[in-house]
Amino acid sequence: MRKIKISKNVFILGLVSLFTDLSSEMIYPLIPEFLTNLGANKFVIGIIEGVVEAIASGFRTIFGKISDKLRRRKMFIFIGYGLSSFSKPLLFFANLWQTVLFVRIADRMGKAIRTPARDALISTSIEPAEKGKAFGFHRAMDRIGAIGGPILAMLILSLSGNNVRLVFLLSIIPGILSIIFINFTKESKKMEESNRQVDQKRKNFRDNAFVIFFISIVVFTLGNSSNAFLILKAQEVGLPLKLVPLIWIFYNVFCTVSSPVFGVLSDNTGPRRMIIISFIYYSLIYFLFAFATSLWQIWALFGAYGIYYGLTDGIFRAYIADLVEEDKRATAYGIFNTGIGLALLPASILFGWIWDAFGSKYAFLVSSAFSMIGFFIFVIGLKITKYSNS
């Protein structure tokens, strides 16, 4: 069996993501109910989640391109994580849902600044044949933090008499720890010769494949609204507020376990197969969410949805690294994430509107349908691209 190695940069950035997600997931499961208490309905929550991602995502391409231009990654990683870490605790002072919107924008802007540079640094800190494993490891570390966050939230809530604002304030502690770890990362000077020597025909195929992948994911994302609606669905079925952090832990356990497993599998079988499976799998999960009426079904679906995360997040990043040269990779990650973020605005608004107007069942069914449309675009697009380049 081949020995599994994780580079220093990947390991440290895994720790950075672990503590950042520890901070984020302390508060994220509590935000939907917090917004509801501030007077926001489902439609407003959809607007908030959509606007947050749309505004922040608009800058991901810009910061990715700047990172490629300056050939600097660490600076953007530090600024991005810093902005997120110091903005989230400001929810402690929020008395209007508009304040929550402002804090969420600042938090997501931090992600927009750091993500393209971070993913580009990871992709050049590893062997080319192990991208799936490296990104799978990184996403698993991220999810370990996502497991610990709700646990800390439940502990604080139980000791403080359900003081949600105190949870928001204390989220700054793991955030600061994440910033400290960034100091131990190093800029990567690696350049992949295979990328420099690729023939024009192969380059055209890879460029076209990236465009097809980008379009299919954007269409898919029109049905992939904020996870806040999954929490609201669980509460609609009857999940009490005190168990919301627990079901979020349950979801993240499956994310953590599945990410490295599917990452390694992606290296062995190729990421395209995994991506095709992910479209179909997501469509099925949301179809089942539409008809879920009991708590055991909700728990099962949250676990199944965690497996979907392992099928996508790290594998998407590895696939982009296969298609894009190193010196343009942060730009590519920025474009990709910008497309997703901009699509989340109409996705979340549409989901919230359908829920308010027709009920959660139809909102989840529409999302399921968008996933299948993305699937057909990806599969048919790749076939056409291969044919035109043969």
Task: Briefly say what this structure is.
It contains 17 helices and no strands. With 390 residues, it is an all-alpha fold.
Keywords summarizing the entry:
single chain, mainly alpha, Growth Hormone, Chain: A, 17 helices
Describe the protein in words.
The chain has 390 residues and is mainly alpha-helical. The protein has one domain (8-183, 192-388): Up-down Bundle (Growth Hormone, Chain: A), CATH 1.20.1250.20. It is built from 17 helices and no strands. The protein has helices at 8-27, 31-37, 42-57, 60-70, 74-87, 97-123, 131-160, 164-170, 172-182, 193-196, 200-221, 228-237, 244-269, 271-290, 295-323, 329-358, 360-388. Helix 12 (228-237) packs antiparallel against helix 15 (295-323). The protein is globular, with a radius of gyration of 20 Å. The chain starts with 7 loop residues before the first helix and ends with a helix. Residues 191-199 have low confidence and may be disordered.
> What is the terminal separation in angstroms?
36 Å
**Total of helices:** 17
Overall shape: globular
Q: For the residues shown, what is the average pLDDT?
A: 85
Q: How many domain modules?
A: 1
Low-confidence stretches: 191-199
